[in-house]
Specification:
By secondary structure, chain A is mostly helical. Chain A folds into two domains: 5-41; 44-278, MetI-like (MetI-like fold). Chain A has helices at residues 5-38, 44-48, 61-92, 97-111, 114-128, 135-159, 163-171, 176-205, 208-213, 231-240, 245-278, and strands spanning 51-52, 57-58. Chain B has a single domain, classed as Rossmann fold (3-Layer(aba) Sandwich). Chain B has helices at 45-52, 82-88, 103-107, 109-113, 119-132, 136-139, 152-164, 182-195, 208-214, 232-237, 242-248; strands spanning 5-16, 19-30, 34-38, 62-70, 73-74, 89-92, 170-174, 200-204, 217-222, 225-231. In chain B, strands 6-7-8-3-9-10 form a six-stranded mixed beta sheet, with helices on both faces. A four-stranded antiparallel beta sheet of chain B has the order 2-1-4-5, covered by helices on one side. In chain B, strand 9 and strand 10 (225-231) form a beta hairpin. Classes of the chains: A mainly alpha, B alpha/beta.
């Protein structure tokens, strides 16, 4: 039986549109639900006070700090390593067995559940290196976790830079390093930023790997060698141990809003950068 | 060593994998003049041009043998400083490729690599280069605008200015007008003729009339070989080889 073109068009629109709508609806529902339950709890005291009675009362200030610092340190470690690896794989080597082994390795790394990274971080950084539960242990663990994402996105972004830019740069007497620095990386930046944002998102939302490595201390950390609790971990503990559902939702709402802010700001900065160069 | 000869090419062969792009090329490029290189697509003109600044090195499967002497020095020797070579031998590509940065930064890309940082010095160089490429009047008020917002013809003159800013000795042009309208083309040609008193220019072109208009000497490539090389007037009016005659009279290619 043949379906007439008009009918098949209508069916396609209905199915694809329906799928899009459903996805959006779920997303909107989650956000509205979290904000609806959490927003009433949020006020300046909640944002700026320290938690009392394990988080049953008081605010969440230390966990906000933890949530800011941990991904920041993790990215500061993972970004140079990841972009460096991507530059090496794309600009300094020709495709061959070694590069495909490295690529296979990073792809495998990307598929490993985060709790395995947590376990590794606990054994290696916390125990063997005797760093203890601290921000640095957690950040190093998160860095390893997001490295594959950063490498892969940076690699794709670098490959997408037109070869003519490289030729122009070399023809003007640039060395390979100068070409990478001045002609390739600035034009790969949007792709690299996308990878970083994905990674920041994963770090902010991570619980398993963080509990094992950065610990769950509720007080304000005063160095990288202090234990810290992120909002995601705080939320998990509040909800899991039934300490305070209201405060759990409040934390979740702050978490959702901060992710939104981080993403909007980075998109805005990236857009400003690009339009400054080509428009 | 002859003062008037800039490049002396001896037994040059260029291969891409199993494909021989150029074979047995013996050719001299006279200094301070324009050498036009004509020939149908795939005849090896571009491979020849890219052998003069060793840009063929960028293609992974490319092998170059034979000698290319620049002022008597073989640039194909492994220890030859390629970065220094490319500062002496600039290149304008077929499609205008402004880098995604301002006009000013485009023109100063080369000088800044060489360590020139002083804004005043760079400014002076930018003006000189843009004037020599006949672009200054059109862009002098908007040097901070992105080079990508210029028209195609302006972009190509920007690329020429970018090469001139390095103060090279040789300028290689690879079909620089293939994407341009006749007016833009004539502006580029004007610039080239004005430049030949100071520079050695090699102009690869698909447009035989362009070679006839601006080149002092013309070389005809066919299937990877030099068929004939001589004064432009002779190539176009009294070629020695029948194939040259057929090509310049438009019978093929």
């Amino acid at each position: 039986m043949r379906i007439p073109p008009k009918a098949s068009q209508a069916i396609a629109v209905a199915l694809l549109g329906g799928a899009t709508l459903l996805t959006l609806a779920v997303l909107v529902f989650v956000i509205v639900f979290v904000l609806g339950k959490g927003l009433p709890v949020i006020n300046w005291a909640f944002l700026l006070d320290v938690p009392r009675e394990m988080g049953k009362a008081g605010g969440i200030f230390p966990t906000i700090v933890g949530t800011l610092v941990l991904p920041l340190v993790a990215i500061a470690i993972a970004l140079p390593m990841g972009v460096g690896t991507a530059v090496y794989l794309t600009e300094y080597t020709r495709p061959g067995r070694v590069t495909s082994v490295i690529r296979f390795g990073t792809d495998c790394l990307a598929g490993i559940p985060s709790i395995i990274f947590g376990l590794f971080g606990y054994i290696f950084f916390v125990t063997i290196l005797r760093m203890g539960w601290c921000i640095l242990s957690g950040a190093l663990t998160l860095a390893i976790m997001v490295l594959p994402t950063i490498i892969r996105t940076a690699e794709e972004a670098i490959k997408a830079v037109p070869n003519s830019y490289r030729e122009v740069s070399y023809s003007l007497g640039a060395t390979r390093w100068e070409t990478v620095l001045k002609a390739v990386l600035p034009n790969a930046l949007p792709g690299i930023v996308t990878g970083v944002m994905l990674s920041v998102g994963r770090c902010i939302g991570e619980t398993a790997a963080v509990i094992f490595t950065a610990g769950t201390a509720l007080r304000l950390p005063d160095s990288l060698f202090d234990s810290a609790r992120t909002m995601a971990v705080h939320f998990y503990i509040l909800a899991r141990e039934g300490i305070s559902n209201e405060n759990a939702y409040g934390t979740a709402a702050v978490l959702v809003i901060s992710v939104l802010i981080v993403n909007s700001v980075s998109y805005w900065m990236m857009h400003k950068f690009i339009s400054g160069r080509s428009a | 060593m002859n003062e008037a000869v800039k490049f002396s090419v001896r037994g040059l062969e260029v291969r891409f994998g199993d494909v021989v792009a150029l074979r047995g090329i013996d050719l001299e490029v006279p200094a301070r003049s324009i050498l036009g290189a004509i020939g149908p697509a795939g005849s090896g003109k571009t491979a020849f041009l890219r052998a003069l600044n060793r840009l063929n090195d960028l293609s992974p499967n490319c092998r170059v043998t034979g000698q290319v002497l620049l002022d008597g020095e073989d640039i194909n020797r492994p220890e030859y400083d390629v970065v220094r070579l490319r500062k002496r031998v600039g290149m304008v590509f077929a499609l205008p490729v402004p880098l995604p940065m301002s006009i000013f930064d485009n023109v100063t890309y080369g000088p800044r690599l060489s360590g020139s940082r002083k804004r005043g010095q760079l400014q002076e160089r930018v003006e000189r280069s843009l004037r020599a490429a006949f672009l200054w009047e059109e862009v002098k008020d908007r040097l901070d605008m992105s080079g990508m917002r210029l028209s195609g013809g302006q972009q190509q003159r920007l690329c020429l200015a970018r090469v001139l800013a390095m103060e090279p000795e040789v300028i290689l042009l690879d079909e620089p007008c293939s994407g341009l309208d006749p007016v833009s083309t004539s502006r580029i040609e004007e610039a080239l003729v004005a430049l030949k008193s100071d520079y050695t220019i090699v102009l690869v072109t698909n447009n035989t009339k362009q070679a006839a208009r601006v080149a002092d000497r013309t070389v005809f490539f066919l299937t990877g070989e030099v068929i004939e090389c001589g004064p432009t007037a002779q190539i176009f009016t009294a070629p020695r080889d029948q194939r040259t005659n057929d090509y310049v009279s438009g019978r093929f290619g």
